[in-house]
């Protein structure tokens, strides 16, 4: 069976998402291409290695993830999920948009309400 572009996008994005939240950074990295850009309310980075280096710290505060919705196109995807954290922010509703090139994630835009994180901002920014 041949994978469609949409199937490949799903496989790549879900592979990254699942690997990241189980703390398997090497497996997550296998889904990330170059050049790479990450944007969130706190971080705007074009550094693939830097992004991957931040994942263990983030995952260390995550207590669970509930996937709400997943939408896939040929070279883009959007996941909406609740991330439960062991922080004063508690549970955070999050939308994450991915762009892919040649089957690899080359851009991630993370969208969430940053207000609950303001008191922890100094510990989040690189």
Question: What does it look like?
Answer:
The protein has 126 residues and is an alpha+beta fold. The chain has a single domain, classed as Nuclear Transport Factor 2, Chain: A (Roll), CATH 3.10.450. Helix content is 30%, strand content 40%. It contains four helices and six strands, in the order ααββαββββα. It has helices spanning 5-21, 25-29, 48-59, 121-124, and strands at residues 32-39, 44-45, 62-72, 76-85, 91-101, 104-112. It has a six-stranded mixed sheet, with helices on one face. The chain is globular. The N and C termini lie far apart (44 Å). The model has no long low-confidence stretch (mean pLDDT 92).
Question: Short description, anyone?
Answer:
With 126 residues, this protein is of the alpha+beta class. It has one domain: Nuclear Transport Factor 2, Chain: A. It contains 4 helices and 6 strands, in the order ααββαββββα.
List descriptors.
126 residues; Nuclear Transport Factor 2, Chain: A; 4 helices; globular
Report the structural category: alpha+beta
* CATH topology annotation: Nuclear Transport Factor 2, Chain: A
Binned strand content: 35-45%
Mean pLDDT: 92
What's the total number of strands? 6
Number of helices: 4
Name of the CATH architecture: Roll
CATH classification class: Alpha Beta
The percent of residues in helical segments reads: 25-40%
Distance between the termini: 44 Å
Q: Return residue spans where pLDDT drops below 50 for at least 5 consecutive residues.
A: none
Order of helices and strands: HHEEHEEEEH
């Amino acid at each position: 069976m041949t994978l469609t572009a949409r199937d490949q996008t799903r496989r790549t994005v879900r592979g990254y998402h699942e690997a990241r939240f189980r703390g398997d950074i090497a497996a997550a990295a296998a889904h990330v291409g170059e050049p790479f850009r990450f944007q969130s309310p706190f971080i705007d980075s074009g550094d693939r290695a830097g992004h991957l280096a931040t994942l263990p710290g983030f995952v260390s505060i995550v207590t669970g993830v509930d996937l709400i919705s997943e939408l896939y196109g040929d070279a883009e995807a959007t996941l909406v999920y609740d991330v439960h954290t062991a922080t004063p922010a508690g549970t955070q509703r999050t939308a994450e948009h991915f762009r892919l090139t040649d089957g690899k994630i080359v851009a991630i835009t993370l969208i969430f309400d940053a207000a609950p994180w303001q008191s922890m901002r100094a510990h989040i920014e690189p």
